[in-house]
Amino acid sequence: MIEKIMSERFFYLPVFLSIILLFVIVTLGNNIVKHIEALHVIERSYVQMNKTSE
């Protein structure tokens, strides 16, 4: 009985770890994309600010 419970518990462990890893990868990818978008906004602001000061 205990062996069956332990084998079921260890069967689901890789599934849960895979789901957590998937969420981590998606979150990191989203953060990278948002960071790049923010840098482009800052760059465009500086370009526009330099054009108006000329």
Number of helices: 1
The assigned structural class equals mainly alpha
Helix content: over 70%
Rg over CA atoms, rounded to whole Å, is: 24 Å
The biggest beta sheet, please?
none
Query: What characteristic shape results from the CA principal axes?
Result: rod-shaped
The end-to-end distance, rounded to whole angstroms, is: 80 Å
Low-confidence stretches: none
Order of secondary-structure elements: H
What does the average pLDDT come to? Answer: 87
Secondary structure: number of strands: 0
Question: How does this model look, in words?
Answer:
- The model has no long low-confidence stretch (mean pLDDT 87).
- The protein is rod-shaped.
- It contains 1 helix and no strands.
- The N and C termini lie far apart (80 Å).
- The longest helix has 52 residues, at 2-53.
- The protein has 54 residues and is an all-alpha fold.
What is the strand and helix layout of this fold?
Blueprint: H1 2-53
Give a brief description:
The chain is mostly helical and 54 residues long.
Descriptive tags:
54 residues; mainly alpha; 1 helix
